[in-house]
Specification:
This protein has 749 residues and is α/β, with parallel strands linked by helices. Helices cover 48% and strands 13% of the residues. The longest helix has 36 residues. The radius of gyration is 31 Å and the shape is globular.
Length: 749
């Protein structure tokens, strides 16, 4: 086996460039040794540290030596493309079998749902099996015919039996072709020679678009071809949900032909795993689904339907009662077409939805009725599948009773469990939907506050995981939140020349929510942004706590150049292209939007980035529930409303654990991600501006309860230069003049 102490360790064969940097050499050795010890790795590296290859090279080497598969995963589309480029560079030097995998929805040629696809696969395979059976029977009857012609009476009798069976199989094939639903693309997969496809697939690193195009030309199903071709590969590139969704993960490992302990998972942009885990754990049930389940049961001719109706209709009426009671004065009138949370929590009892259900339910026992409801629902679901397979229906009907009963059982069992937050939301129906336009209807949701309830089992089952990001610290918090046991930790700051970047902490107003409407505050902020834009030799990015704040300053700031405003629903790709086509523009956007991470602004695309304020997320009931859960899990009688900011390295058990874990650290991570949008290469240069007193060194003493400076890693704090708002323009002028950033004469202060 390779050793990190070898002068030329074996894993360097998977490093496709001339020579790794010193920090990459160190990281690769540390990661290899951690994999050998079956330890997870937390790996923070600033832009340009080469995290991907530092993780992939030792992982691929260890996997090849021990018969494992490496899975690299991200939730950022741009990073998927980067992984493909890196994998292609590796395979040019040291051939590997790599597959880039996406979900069925993006690769299906006939656009059917998952349940329909599964039914089509089953029926198509039945047809192919029958045709193969027919071919075998035809071979048998021909051989028996020859024997009978030579005078064998036994052969003649046997051939008669074979011919009868052949006739039956022919009738089955005719019925399958004429009356049942099959997929022609999957049929080609099962009957054509696929060797050419797999030779082409493994000859290079193919994107899902490449596979889709190949399959389309050949009349095949690319998604199923990929699934069949994943077993035993060296590397798979995929999305988070293939590992974070427990049901998909089980299938995914089966397609790989690997047990979890034979998989090494590399998570990129791993600071996003916390939120992604919550998203994959959340379970919802709408009032519409309950209505449809009730209708389904009313038409079911089964004695169990009455009890099923009793329990599901009671839950439906309880949902309506819960949101009706939860509305405050004027709140109902303000409900729009987006889901709007209502508070149903109780400090001393079960939530209002559960209480309404228990008060209204009458029967032999809801647990018993739910058990019988689930049995009935599974039978109904199976009947829908058979009807679709047999061609009796053109679509595969989904069983609404099964969805509703599964959720109701989980709600009644788990809504009071530690770390679960029960939520009721409402919205107005849109035109063209199943409900009357403008009608308010509800949704129940089980929201998982603590991600480790999702991730701890995953990382415990894998051989090991490497979690990498530019913003993973404080490591102790990541370790706690994801449920990691004694991981190896690595951190590398910016590797580009320090003199080509500058970070300014502007000692302007602390932009608390209560101060944002103050005209003097707005004037100071707008003036600083105008100076930043004027003295930047190129484009400026401006990030705000919300889209509303971005719009406020877009209207107020006068830069003399072009300005671009990002809005919810705007195409990030198109907006970025229009912005970067300019050379003296300002882009106003929300730090919680899509441009704050995973999008590069290299070179002239943007020179200065400003983060205005401390962009805390909207602190709603759901976020308060997360804080309370973190306080209970990681603190000791902590105050979730306002706590210490932590040191950025040491643990702050006790006071403020909920605030620190759930709000402050994620906010500073987002801020650090935004700052990383500029200065993306050794030749690049640029300035980063933190426009709020809470970032300054002075704030640590004068407003320690609110200062966020100490939440940044130590080396990033050391680079922060405190500056008064009125002197920012001089600081920028001097910096950009020092790096020869101005093409001609610099602007005059």
């Amino acid at each position: 086996m390779a050793s990190a102490s070898d002068p030329d360790p074996d894993y360097l064969r998977f490093f496709p460039y001339d020579q790794p940097y010193d920090h990459q050499t160190e990281a690769m050795g540390t990661i290899y040794d951690a994999l050998d010890e079956r330890r997870n790795v937390l790996f923070e590296g600033a832009t340009g540290t080469g995290k991907t290859l530092s993780a992939l090279a030792p992982a691929l080497e260890y996997a090849r030596e021990t018969g494992k598969t490496v899975v690299i995963t991200t939730n950022v589309h741009q990073q998927m493309r980067q992984f493909v480029r890196e994998a292609a560079a590796i395979t040019d030097q040291e051939p590997i079998r790599a597959v880039v995998f996406q979900g069925k929805a993006s690769m299906c040629h006939i656009d059917v749902g998952y349940e329909e696809c599964q039914a089509l696969r089953d029926t198509t395979r039945e047809l192919v099996d029958a045709e193969e059976n027919r071919a075998e029977l035809e071979d048998q009857q021909r051989a028996l015919l020859e024997e009978s012609q030579d005078g064998s009476a036994e052969a003649a009798d046997a051939r008669g039996a074979v011919m009868d069976e052949l006739e039956s199989v022919e009738a089955e094939i005719d019925q399958l072709r004429e009356e049942r639903n099959v997929c022609d693309h999957y049929y080609r997969n099962l009957t054509a020679d696929t060797d050419a496809f797999y030779g082409w697939l493994y000859d290079d690193v193919r994107t899902p678009e490449d596979v889709y195009g190949y399959a389309e030309r050949e009349g095949m199903c690319g998604y199923e071809l990929l699934k069949e071709g994943m077993e035993g590969v060296d590397l798979v590139v995929c999305n988070y949900h293939h590992l974070l969704d427990s049901m998909i993960r089980e299938q995914f490992f089966r397609w790989l032909g690997r047990d979890p302990e034979d998989v090494i998972a590399v998570f990129d942009e791993a600071h996003n795993v916390e939120d992604a885990a919550r998203d994959h754990a959340r379970r919802t049930l709408t009032e519409t689904t309950l209505d449809q389940a009730v209708e389904e049961l009313e038409s079911a001719e089964d004695p169990r339907a009455e009890g099923a109706l009793n329990v599901l209709d009671t839950f439906r009426r309880a949902l309506v009662d819960a949101y009706d009671e939860a509305f405050g004065f004027g709140e109902r009138e303000g409900v729009g077409e987006d889901w709007y949370d209502l508070s149903i929590d109780n400090e001393d009892a079960r939530d209002e939805l559960t209480l309404a259900f228990l008060q209204n339910y009458s029967g032999p026992g809801f647990h018993e009725e739910l058990d019988r409801t689930l049995d009935l629902a599974r039978e109904l679901d199976q009947s829908y599948e058979e009807a679709y397979k047999n061609g009796e229906t053109t679509t595969r009907q989904e069983c609404q009773t099964l969805q509703a009963a599964t959720f109701v059982e989980a709600w009644l069992d788990e809504s009071a469990a530690e770390g679960q937050y029960p939520v009721v939301s409402v919205r107005r129906a849109e035109e063209g939907g199943p409900r009357e336009a403008g009608e308010i209807y509800g949704r129940a949701e089980l929201y998982t506050c603590i991600p480790s309830q999702v991730t701890a089992d995953l990382f415990g089952d894998l051989h090991a995981g490497v979690l990498m990001s530019a913003t993973l610290r404080p490591f102790d918090v990541t370790e706690d939140v994801l449920g990691l046991d004694d991981p190896e930790t690595l951190a590398y700051g910016p590797q580009f020349p320090e003199e080509r970047r500058r970070t300014y902490a502007v000692d302007g107003p602390a932009l608390f929510a209560s101060k944002r409407d103050d005209m003097q505050v707005q004037s100071t902020v707008a003036g600083a942004l105008e100076d930043a834009a004027r003295f930047t030799p190129g484009n400026t990015l401006a990030f705000f706590p919300s889209y509303a704040e971005a719009e406020r300053y877009h209207q107020r700031v006068d830069t003399g150049g072009a300005t671009y405003l990002d809005r919810p629903g705007t195409s990030a790709k198109e907006l970025r292209e229009r912005f970067t086509d300019d050379d003296d523009a300002v882009l106003f956007t929300s730090l919680w939007g899509t441009l704050a991470e995973g999008v590069s602004f290299d070179g002239d695309d943007a020179r200065t980035v400003a983060v205005v304020g401390v962009p805390y997320p909207h602190l709603d009931d759901r976020m308060e529930a997360v804080q309370e859960a973190y306080d209970a899990e990681f603190g000791e009688d902590g105050d979730a409303g306002r706590g210490g900011s932590g040191s950025g390295g040491g643990r702050d058990d006790g006071e403020g654990a909920g605030w620190r874990y759930a709000v402050e650290i994620p906010t500073v991570r987002k801020t650090r991600q935004a700052l990383g949008r500029v200065v993306r290469s050794p030749e690049d240069f640029g300035a980063r501006i933190l426009l709020d007193r809470r970032y300054t060194e002075r704030s640590e003493v004068e407003m320690s309860d609110y200062s966020v400076r100490t939440t940044f890693p130590p080396e990033e704090r050391r680079e922060m230069v405190d500056v008064e708002p009125g002197k920012l323009k001089f600081a920028l002028l001097n910096f950009y003049r020092d790096v020869d950033g101005y093409d001609g004469e610099p602007p005059r202060p």
